[in-house]
């Protein structure tokens, strides 16, 4: 199942539990996509639209982590772990952007799906073994619950398409992310209407 977006999760849930559940859903979604695609492209014509939904869910997920967790972790830990995680996010976004440029029948489509599936698994393992553990240790349960309530809003404001070139510097990123999210949703709406 692909995380559906703003309506799911939030109230009364620890942000770490919500994001960990999204990791499971994203890993499953990308694994299913890889199984349905060959090296040259998808065997199933539904793979391309499913890949677009999975990419949008992954972009929202990464943005949510960047909005809600990373600023708090950076304030507590100065060892560069957040900066390394952001580099990984940009790498995933670069692959998603490359995938966005391909049709389902283009050579390399299946290869990019596999890169993304591996990247998502690696992202989940790294986040859960390091950053999420730190967050759970250093941020009180009440605070994690309050942040969990912010997840639906963060998802609603998040972009739906990859933007690896957007600078990570705060407060600039905090200012532009909602506008990029709006622009992406307009673009999504227009592409669904065939315009």
Automatic annotation (TrEMBL):
Highest rank taxon of the organism: Bacteria
PANTHER family linked to this entry: HHE DOMAIN PROTEIN (AFU_ORTHOLOGUE AFUA_4G00730)
A Pfam family hit: Hemerythrin
InterPro entries: Hemerythrin-like
UniProt cross-references to Gene3D superfamilies, sorted A to Z: nmb1532 protein domain like
Domain Hemerythrin-like: 15-134
Residue ranges that the Swiss-Prot or TrEMBL entry lists as coiled coil: none
Protein name: Hemerythrin domain-containing protein
């Amino acid at each position: 199942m692909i995380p559906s977006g703003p309506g799911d999760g939030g109230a009364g849930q620890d942000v770490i539990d919500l994001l960990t559940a999204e990791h499971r859903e994203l890993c499953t979604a990308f694994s299913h996509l890889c199984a349905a695609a060959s090296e040259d492209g998808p065997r199933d014509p539904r793979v391309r639209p499913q890949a677009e939904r999975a990419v949008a869910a992954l972009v929202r997920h990464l943005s949510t982590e960047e909005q809600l967790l990373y600023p708090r972790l950076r304030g507590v830990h100065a060892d560069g772990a957040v900066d390394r995680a952001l580099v990984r996010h940009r790498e995933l976004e670069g692959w998603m952007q490359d995938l966005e440029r391909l049709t389902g029948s283009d050579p390399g489509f299946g290869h990019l799906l596999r890169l993304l599936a591996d990247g998502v698994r690696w992202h989940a393992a790294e986040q859960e073994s390091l950053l999420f553990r730190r967050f759970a240790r250093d941020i009180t349960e009440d605070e994690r619950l309050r942040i969990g309530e912010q997840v639906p809003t963060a998802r609603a404001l998040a972009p739906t398409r990859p933007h690896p070139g957007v600078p990570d510097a705060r407060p600039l990123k905090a200012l532009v992310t909602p506008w990029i999210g709006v622009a992406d949703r307009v673009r999504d709406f227009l592409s669904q209407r065939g315009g």
